[in-house]
Every structure is written in C-alpha cells, then in structure tokens.
From TrEMBL:
Subcellular compartments: Membrane
Listed PANTHER family: EAMA DOMAIN-CONTAINING PROTEIN, INNER MEMBRANE TRANSPORTER
UniProt record similarity statement: Belongs to the EamA transporter family.
UniProt keyword Membrane present: yes
Taxonomic source organism: Reinekea marinisedimentorum
Gene Ontology cellular-component terms listed: membrane
Positions of transmembrane segments: 12-30, 36-56, 97-116, 123-141, 153-173, 180-204, 210-233, 245-264, 270-286
InterPro entries with a match to the protein in the record: AA-Vitamin_Transporters, EamA_dom, EmrE-like
Topology in the lipid bilayer: Multi-pass membrane protein
Protein's name in the database: Drug/metabolite transporter (DMT)-like permease
Length: 303
C-alpha cells in the first residue's frame, strides 16, 4: 500500500473514531448544560467553522429549482428533530447503548424505502432487520439503572426516535448528494440549527458555572466532529473507493462502545453483550450488494 492510500485509509478511520467519540462528548456536555443549550452552542461553533471554510466548500453547490423543499426537509429531520431526540436520550441512556442503536439505521432506511418507494427488500434483509430489532430490545430490557443510564428504556427509545429522524434525513439527502457536497449539506444543517435551537435554548436553564471539560466537549462537537470528521471522510473519498470508505462506518457502534467503557467507565452485563452480538449479526445478515443508503450519502451528524 503506497503512502497516499495509507493516508486515505487512516483518514476515514480517524473520521469514524471522531464520530464515535461524539456520543461521549455529548454525554459529558449534557451532564452540566441543558441539552438544547448544548446543541445550540454546538451549532454556533459549527456554523462559524463552516463560514471560515466557505471559500473552499462553496463550489459544491448546483442548485436546481425546487431544491429548497428537499433542503428544508433535510434540515428539519436533521439536525432539528434528530438532536431533540438524541440530546434528551443522552440524559437517560449510556453512550455505548446509544451508539449500538445507530447500527440499525441502514435497516430502517431499507424498511422505509419499502413502504414509501415500494423498493424491494430480500428475505435475508428482512430477517436481518428483525434479528437486529430483537437484539436492541433485549439490550434495552436487560439494562439496569446506573449513573450513566438512569432510565435506559426511555433513553434507548428516544435514541431510536433519533434514528427515525435520521431515516427521513437520509431519504432527502439521497436526492441532494447528486448536486451538493457533504460539506455544503452539513453547513446548511448547522446554519438552520442555529435558528431552530435559538428559542429552545433561550427558554432552557443556563448554568451559572460550566467546567472547562464541558466547554471543550461543546467546541469539540461543533468544530472537530462537524468539520474535521467530514473533512477526513471526504479526503478519503478522493483517493479510495466510496464503498471502501463507507465500509468503515460499520465500525462506528463498536468504537462508541469501546470509548464509552474507557472514558466514561460504562459497563455491560453478560446479557447485554449477547444482545449486542445479536444486533451485529442482524446488521451483517442484512448487508446487500445494493445497500439502501448509497455510498455518496454523508452519515448523519452523530452526537
């Protein structure tokens, strides 16, 4: 493997690691600051970063009449509704369990495409979807209340709601990626997010004191996760196949689980490990040559 290819593989691997750590950063931040305030501040940081980078990313726009409907729909699903669910979820469940639930997104998109667009899904894909759902339900019901997950059933349900919003986002973005780069779409999400979350942040309780740790997590979410993650992912796409880069995304739940254990001290009981194995098996079983999420569709703004 030459140096360029090695750098491309390291870039996409680093992007996945960054996206995985976003759950941990969000978990830490909402422990001190109201969820809607955290998301609003994250959107502010992200928007400033994209404004600074705009001269380099503005060329990734090919607007066509009527695109505003898809852009508005995309932004409403994510970040608006998506982060309402996910930020609240992190108050009640662990970062590791939330990360595991994200592995169901491709299966949920396939199910939505079947009912909305009448796209055919194979028996194997439906079997994988059912098995993964069983695994998530088992993982949730076997969870016990802890400092990291005071109400895991509610938290995992809210995270599942975030994935439902991500499905809507993906269906819109499937259409938009033919004319807009991942950077531009993410920038639009940040700009809309600032406007949407401003009133929600204003009616929230603002803490009188915030630790540097929480501030660092918010800046990390807005700057490194949004700009750095997509920058590295797009760099990899310029040197290796899109299918190769997208394949690394499957490691996201595993990395999230590892980081939640190392950084937050989260622990899982044996029944939950079995359930996680069932989820991974269901996801693996559902893999198709023509996946429901095209390789060009950027991942949702996780964390």
């Amino acid at each position: 493997m030459n140096t360029v290819l090695l750098k491309a593989h390291l870039a996409v691997l680093t992007a996945v690691v960054i996206w995985a750590t976003s759950f941990i950063a969000l978990k830490v931040a909402v422990g001190e600051v109201a969820p809607m305030v955290v998301i609003f501040l994250r959107m502010i940081v992200g928007s400033l970063a994209f404004i600074a980078a705009w001269p380099w990313i503005r060329h990734g726009i090919n607007y066509q009449p009527g695109d505003w409907k898809y852009l508005v729909g995309m932004a409403l699903f994510e970040p608006c509704f998506y982060f309402i669910f996910e930020a609240q979820a992190m108050l009640y469940t662990s970062a590791g369990q939330a990360g595991m639930i994200t592995s169901m997104l491709p299966l949920m998109v396939a199910a939505a495409a079947y009912f909305i667009f009448k796209e055919r899904n194979s028996l194997r894909q439906w079997s994988g979807f059912i098995i993964a759902v069983i695994g998530v339900v088992w993982m949730t019901l076997s969870s016990t209340e802890s400092e990291q997950a005071p109400n895991p059933i509610l938290g995992n349900f809210l995270e599942f709601g975030a994935m439902v919003m991500a499905v809507g986002y993906t269906l819109f973005v499937k259409h938009l990626t033919r004319r807009y780069s991942a950077f531009v779409l993410t920038a639009i999400q940040s700009f809309v997010g600032v406007v949407f979350f401003l009133p929600l942040a204003l009616v929230s309780d603002w803490p009188s004191h915030v630790s540097l740790n929480a501030v660092g997590c918010i800046v990390y979410l807005g700057l490194v996760v949004s700009l750095g993650g997509y920058g590295l992912y797009n760099y990899s796409l310029s040197h290796i196949k899109a299918s190769t880069s997208a394949g690394y995304i499957n490691l996201l739940p595993a990395f999230t689980l590892v980081f939640s254990m190392l950084l937050l001290g989260e622990r899982l009981i044996s029944a939950q490990w079995i359930a996680i194995g069932i989820v991974f098996f269901g996801v693996l079983l559902s893999q198709e040559r023509n996946p429901p999420i095209p390789k060009e569709v950027p991942p949702g703004a996780t964390g």
